[in-house]
Amino acid sequence: MPDINTLRLTAHTLACIRGGRIVFENLSFTVAGGQALVVTGPNGAGKSSLLRQIAGLVDIAGGGFTLNGGAAEAALAEQAHYIGHLDALKSAMSVGDTARFWSDFLGGTRAGIDAAFEIFDLHALADLPVAYLSAGQRRRLALSRLLIAPRALWLLDEPSVALDAASLARLVAAMEHHLVGGGILIAATHHDLGLSRTSSLDLSHARVPA
Amino acid sequence: MTRAFLALIVRDVALAVRVGGGGGMAVFFFLVVVAIVPLGIGPNLNLLGQIAPGLLWVALLLSSLLTLDRLFQADYEDGTLDILTMSSVPLELTVCAKIVAHWLTTGLPLVIAAPLLGLLLNLGVAQFPSLMLAMLIGTPALSFLGAIGAALTVSVRRGGLLASLLVLPFYIPVLIFGVAAAGGAAAIPGAGHQGLLLLGAVTLVSLVVGPVASAAALRANLKT
Fold this sequence. Notes:
The complex is a heterodimer. By secondary structure, chain A is of the alpha/beta class.
């Protein structure tokens, strides 16, 4: 995990265009290591688009990102975990197989899987095919990817969807632990997650009337 | 990086075997096409034996087209592809792993099934080795070239037919040289050796072009 004092993600004069429409423009912000940035705004304000831009999954129409203090030779997307609306799970794979695949593909360790399953309470489900999981259990498995391979930047799009109170508390604890370790967390959410050291970014002001 | 590459191959092969619709479907389609041809053209054993290599190649091409559309689409639809791109593994290599898995689950079973189906068509046993060798060399090209079409149409619902139309022209050299190498009726006598070499050349080109072009097409599809 990078040093808490040096990690810093800066967005400068960022613009996003989807389907010919300007979603936001001239957006600038800075998040330092150990900080959470909660992105808020009405539907269509560009919360998901912003997260996907950081993850390299949506074209950046103007401006850009700078990450200081991360791994020098790695692209921004390689240092980020993105948990979006889609869970990226295969019905035919078991919970354990899914975790082992992500661990192998993303460069995690077996100990990382154990820790992730412990935190998201997945040990009892390890042999079950993903097809039989409930929406909340699927969400927990998707979130376990955050801990399976350590990455400095967490991008979470509505992470609390389908989670019960106990699971949400587990997620918030994992987030707090990530922040204490010096990581950066950017979450788009309509709910107050109750994180300490949070700054917020309201996209409704960045919105350009159609 | 090797670990990630192998993990993706193992996952895709396991999924294809468990879910079905991959290799099994291609082999059964292959069987169906080959089994109905003698019914259509009558029990003329000499004629069947003559057209058998060409017929097997055509059936092989159609079977492998059938399985193309799911190559990237399943991962695209459930969000897995997003995560696969956010890796230190270059997307070209990721795509390459998926294509290798596709070949292992469709191309290879088809090659193994080909001599059995050749018996149905009265193909001479002496021709089995050259046919299998040609198919073994040619089928990777089908997966690697097909991936380009699959990647271009990944965001199109039921884009299988569109992918087939895009890919089929690129399959033609494989078909021509494949039949030549297997010694079919369409082949020039004595051209088997050259056919095999040219088939190998097509496969080598596809090994290079396929992953690069597919990765570029996937990037373009993901970002829009």
